[in-house]
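Wed. Picked up where I left off yesterday with Putative IclR family transcriptional regulator. The coffee machine is broken again, so keeping this brief.
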Amino acid sequence: MNRATEAPTTLIASAQRALRLLEAAARYPSGATAKQLARDTGLALGTTYHLLRTLVHDRYLERHEGLYCTGPAVSGLSREESPAAGRSRLDRLLGRIAHELAAAVHFARYKDGEVQLVAAAAAPGAPTVDARNFHAAAHAHAAGKTLLALMSAEERRTHLHRYPMVPFTPYTLREPAHLPLLPRHGPQRAVPITQYQEYALGAAGAAVPIVLGSGLAAVAVSLPMSQAHRLPQVAAQLRVRVGDDLVTAAFGL
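Structure written out below (C-alpha coordinates, as returned):
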Protein backbone atom coordinates (compact mmCIF):
# COMPACT_ATOMS: atom_id res chain seq x y z
CA MET A 1 0.00 0.00 0.00
CA ASN A 2 1.43 3.39 -0.92
CA ARG A 3 1.53 6.35 1.48
CA ALA A 4 -1.26 8.21 -0.35
CA THR A 5 -3.64 5.31 0.36
CA GLU A 6 -2.38 4.60 3.88
CA ALA A 7 -2.77 8.14 5.31
CA PRO A 8 -6.55 8.57 4.79
CA THR A 9 -7.17 5.04 6.12
CA THR A 10 -5.16 5.82 9.27
CA LEU A 11 -7.02 9.12 9.79
CA ILE A 12 -10.41 7.40 9.44
CA ALA A 13 -9.39 4.70 11.92
CA SER A 14 -8.24 7.35 14.41
CA ALA A 15 -11.54 9.19 14.07
CA GLN A 16 -13.45 5.98 14.65
CA ARG A 17 -11.44 5.22 17.78
CA ALA A 18 -12.01 8.76 19.09
CA LEU A 19 -15.77 8.45 18.51
CA ARG A 20 -15.80 5.13 20.37
CA LEU A 21 -14.11 6.81 23.30
CA LEU A 22 -16.65 9.65 23.26
CA GLU A 23 -19.52 7.16 23.22
CA ALA A 24 -17.98 5.24 26.11
CA ALA A 25 -17.38 8.38 28.18
CA ALA A 26 -20.98 9.48 27.66
CA ARG A 27 -22.11 6.36 29.52
CA TYR A 28 -20.39 7.63 32.70
CA PRO A 29 -22.03 10.92 33.80
CA SER A 30 -19.74 11.07 36.84
CA GLY A 31 -16.63 10.28 34.80
CA ALA A 32 -14.54 7.21 34.02
CA THR A 33 -10.84 6.42 34.20
CA ALA A 34 -8.70 5.90 31.13
CA LYS A 35 -8.41 2.20 32.00
CA GLN A 36 -12.20 1.86 32.15
CA LEU A 37 -12.58 3.54 28.78
CA ALA A 38 -9.80 1.40 27.28
CA ARG A 39 -11.55 -1.77 28.50
CA ASP A 40 -14.95 -0.59 27.21
CA THR A 41 -13.63 0.26 23.76
CA GLY A 42 -11.05 -2.53 23.41
CA LEU A 43 -8.32 0.01 22.68
CA ALA A 44 -4.74 -0.25 23.89
CA LEU A 45 -4.11 1.91 26.95
CA GLY A 46 -1.40 3.92 25.19
CA THR A 47 -3.72 4.66 22.28
CA THR A 48 -6.49 5.58 24.72
CA TYR A 49 -4.30 8.09 26.56
CA HIS A 50 -3.18 9.65 23.27
CA LEU A 51 -6.75 10.10 22.04
CA LEU A 52 -7.98 11.31 25.43
CA ARG A 53 -5.36 14.08 25.47
CA THR A 54 -6.57 15.25 22.06
CA LEU A 55 -10.24 15.10 23.03
CA VAL A 56 -9.59 17.03 26.25
CA HIS A 57 -7.56 19.63 24.38
CA ASP A 58 -10.44 20.16 21.93
CA ARG A 59 -12.95 20.22 24.84
CA TYR A 60 -14.92 17.18 23.69
CA LEU A 61 -13.95 15.64 27.03
CA GLU A 62 -13.08 17.08 30.43
CA ARG A 63 -10.63 15.57 32.91
CA HIS A 64 -11.08 16.05 36.65
CA GLU A 65 -9.04 14.12 39.23
CA GLY A 66 -8.25 11.36 36.75
CA LEU A 67 -11.84 10.94 35.52
CA TYR A 68 -13.01 11.74 31.99
CA CYS A 69 -16.52 12.91 31.08
CA THR A 70 -18.07 14.69 28.13
CA GLY A 71 -17.13 18.34 27.70
CA PRO A 72 -18.84 21.50 26.43
CA ALA A 73 -17.91 20.88 22.80
CA VAL A 74 -20.08 17.76 22.75
CA SER A 75 -23.26 19.67 23.53
CA GLY A 76 -22.52 21.94 20.59
CA LEU A 77 -22.80 18.97 18.23
CA SER A 78 -26.54 18.71 18.80
CA ARG A 79 -29.03 21.47 18.12
CA GLU A 80 -30.71 21.20 21.45
CA GLU A 81 -29.78 19.62 24.78
CA SER A 82 -32.63 18.18 26.79
CA PRO A 83 -33.45 20.07 30.01
CA ALA A 84 -32.63 16.97 32.06
CA ALA A 85 -29.21 16.58 30.41
CA GLY A 86 -28.47 20.28 30.81
CA ARG A 87 -29.43 20.24 34.48
CA SER A 88 -27.33 17.13 35.07
CA ARG A 89 -24.32 18.82 33.49
CA LEU A 90 -24.83 21.97 35.57
CA ASP A 91 -25.10 19.89 38.75
CA ARG A 92 -21.84 18.12 37.93
CA LEU A 93 -20.05 21.41 37.27
CA LEU A 94 -21.25 22.96 40.52
CA GLY A 95 -20.29 19.82 42.41
CA ARG A 96 -16.76 19.98 41.04
CA ILE A 97 -16.41 23.66 41.87
CA ALA A 98 -17.73 23.10 45.40
CA HIS A 99 -15.19 20.31 45.86
CA GLU A 100 -12.32 22.39 44.45
CA LEU A 101 -13.11 25.47 46.57
CA ALA A 102 -14.34 23.63 49.71
CA ALA A 103 -17.35 25.96 49.69
CA ALA A 104 -21.04 25.70 48.89
CA VAL A 105 -21.80 26.89 45.36
CA HIS A 106 -25.07 28.30 44.02
CA PHE A 107 -26.21 29.18 40.52
CA ALA A 108 -28.97 31.79 40.22
CA ARG A 109 -30.51 33.62 37.28
CA TYR A 110 -32.91 36.47 36.55
CA LYS A 111 -35.66 35.18 34.30
CA ASP A 112 -39.22 36.30 33.65
CA GLY A 113 -38.85 39.02 36.28
CA GLU A 114 -37.81 36.60 39.01
CA VAL A 115 -34.56 35.80 40.81
CA GLN A 116 -34.37 32.02 40.67
CA LEU A 117 -32.07 29.61 42.49
CA VAL A 118 -31.52 27.01 39.78
CA ALA A 119 -28.97 24.68 41.35
CA ALA A 120 -26.66 24.39 44.34
CA ALA A 121 -23.94 22.09 45.65
CA ALA A 122 -22.78 21.79 49.25
CA ALA A 123 -19.27 21.10 50.53
CA PRO A 124 -18.17 19.51 53.83
CA GLY A 125 -18.73 22.11 56.54
CA ALA A 126 -20.37 24.51 54.06
CA PRO A 127 -24.09 23.82 53.55
CA THR A 128 -26.17 25.43 50.82
CA VAL A 129 -28.33 28.43 51.70
CA ASP A 130 -31.99 28.17 52.72
CA ALA A 131 -33.88 28.40 49.45
CA ARG A 132 -37.30 29.22 50.89
CA ASN A 133 -36.90 33.01 50.73
CA PHE A 134 -34.33 33.13 47.95
CA HIS A 135 -36.55 34.76 45.31
CA ALA A 136 -37.69 37.51 47.70
CA ALA A 137 -34.28 38.15 49.27
CA ALA A 138 -32.19 39.25 46.31
CA HIS A 139 -31.05 42.30 48.27
CA ALA A 140 -29.63 40.06 50.99
CA HIS A 141 -27.66 37.20 49.38
CA ALA A 142 -24.61 37.61 47.18
CA ALA A 143 -26.12 36.06 44.05
CA GLY A 144 -29.20 38.26 44.27
CA LYS A 145 -27.20 41.42 44.93
CA THR A 146 -25.16 40.60 41.83
CA LEU A 147 -28.27 40.15 39.70
CA LEU A 148 -29.76 43.39 41.03
CA ALA A 149 -26.47 45.12 40.25
CA LEU A 150 -26.72 44.00 36.61
CA MET A 151 -30.37 44.95 36.09
CA SER A 152 -31.44 48.14 34.42
CA ALA A 153 -32.70 50.88 36.73
CA GLU A 154 -36.29 50.08 35.74
CA GLU A 155 -35.86 46.35 36.27
CA ARG A 156 -34.34 46.99 39.70
CA ARG A 157 -37.13 49.39 40.73
CA THR A 158 -39.79 46.93 39.60
CA HIS A 159 -38.17 44.03 41.43
CA LEU A 160 -37.72 45.96 44.69
CA HIS A 161 -41.30 47.19 44.49
CA ARG A 162 -42.48 43.59 44.34
CA TYR A 163 -39.96 42.38 46.90
CA PRO A 164 -39.14 45.22 49.33
CA MET A 165 -35.81 45.25 51.14
CA VAL A 166 -37.05 43.71 54.37
CA PRO A 167 -34.44 42.71 56.97
CA PHE A 168 -33.54 39.03 57.27
CA THR A 169 -30.87 39.77 59.89
CA PRO A 170 -29.67 42.94 61.64
CA TYR A 171 -27.04 43.25 58.88
CA THR A 172 -29.39 43.21 55.86
CA LEU A 173 -29.20 46.27 53.59
CA ARG A 174 -32.38 48.36 53.75
CA GLU A 175 -31.84 51.13 51.19
CA PRO A 176 -31.65 50.69 47.39
CA ALA A 177 -28.95 53.37 47.24
CA HIS A 178 -26.66 51.04 49.21
CA LEU A 179 -26.88 48.23 46.65
CA PRO A 180 -23.87 47.80 44.35
CA LEU A 181 -24.10 48.45 40.60
CA LEU A 182 -22.31 46.69 37.76
CA PRO A 183 -22.08 47.42 34.03
CA ARG A 184 -23.95 44.77 32.07
CA HIS A 185 -21.16 44.78 29.49
CA GLY A 186 -17.44 44.95 30.12
CA PRO A 187 -15.20 43.55 32.89
CA GLN A 188 -17.99 42.85 35.41
CA ARG A 189 -16.00 40.24 37.27
CA ALA A 190 -13.26 42.57 38.52
CA VAL A 191 -14.56 42.60 42.10
CA PRO A 192 -16.92 39.89 43.40
CA ILE A 193 -19.96 41.12 45.32
CA THR A 194 -20.03 39.93 48.92
CA GLN A 195 -22.39 39.68 51.86
CA TYR A 196 -21.64 38.99 55.50
CA GLN A 197 -24.58 37.66 57.53
CA GLU A 198 -27.09 39.68 55.49
CA TYR A 199 -29.19 36.69 54.44
CA ALA A 200 -28.59 34.36 57.38
CA LEU A 201 -26.68 34.77 60.62
CA GLY A 202 -23.45 32.81 60.65
CA ALA A 203 -22.95 32.74 56.87
CA ALA A 204 -21.00 34.82 54.36
CA GLY A 205 -21.03 34.73 50.59
CA ALA A 206 -19.58 36.14 47.39
CA ALA A 207 -20.78 36.03 43.79
CA VAL A 208 -19.61 36.81 40.27
CA PRO A 209 -21.91 37.63 37.34
CA ILE A 210 -22.50 35.66 34.17
CA VAL A 211 -23.85 37.68 31.24
CA LEU A 212 -24.74 36.22 27.86
CA GLY A 213 -26.62 38.63 25.62
CA SER A 214 -29.67 39.70 27.59
CA GLY A 215 -29.37 36.73 29.95
CA LEU A 216 -28.31 37.51 33.52
CA ALA A 217 -27.01 34.93 35.99
CA ALA A 218 -24.68 34.69 38.95
CA VAL A 219 -22.64 31.96 40.57
CA ALA A 220 -21.98 32.35 44.29
CA VAL A 221 -20.05 30.69 47.08
CA SER A 222 -21.17 30.45 50.70
CA LEU A 223 -19.08 29.83 53.79
CA PRO A 224 -19.78 29.74 57.53
CA MET A 225 -18.59 32.87 59.35
CA SER A 226 -15.92 30.77 61.06
CA GLN A 227 -14.30 30.52 57.60
CA ALA A 228 -15.10 34.07 56.46
CA HIS A 229 -11.37 34.84 56.31
CA ARG A 230 -11.24 32.49 53.28
CA LEU A 231 -13.90 34.38 51.35
CA PRO A 232 -11.66 36.79 49.35
CA GLN A 233 -9.42 33.97 48.16
CA VAL A 234 -12.32 31.62 47.40
CA ALA A 235 -14.13 34.42 45.52
CA ALA A 236 -11.00 35.07 43.44
CA GLN A 237 -10.76 31.37 42.60
CA LEU A 238 -14.44 31.33 41.68
CA ARG A 239 -13.91 34.24 39.29
CA VAL A 240 -11.21 32.26 37.49
CA ARG A 241 -13.27 29.05 37.53
CA VAL A 242 -16.25 30.61 35.74
CA GLY A 243 -15.58 29.71 32.12
CA ASP A 244 -17.30 28.77 28.89
CA ASP A 245 -18.38 25.38 30.22
CA LEU A 246 -20.37 26.94 33.06
CA VAL A 247 -21.80 29.66 30.82
CA THR A 248 -22.94 27.02 28.32
CA ALA A 249 -24.55 24.95 31.05
CA ALA A 250 -26.10 27.96 32.74
CA PHE A 251 -27.89 29.36 29.71
CA GLY A 252 -28.72 25.98 28.21
CA LEU A 253 -31.53 25.43 30.72
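Quick read: Residues 86 and 220 are 19 Å apart (CA to CA).
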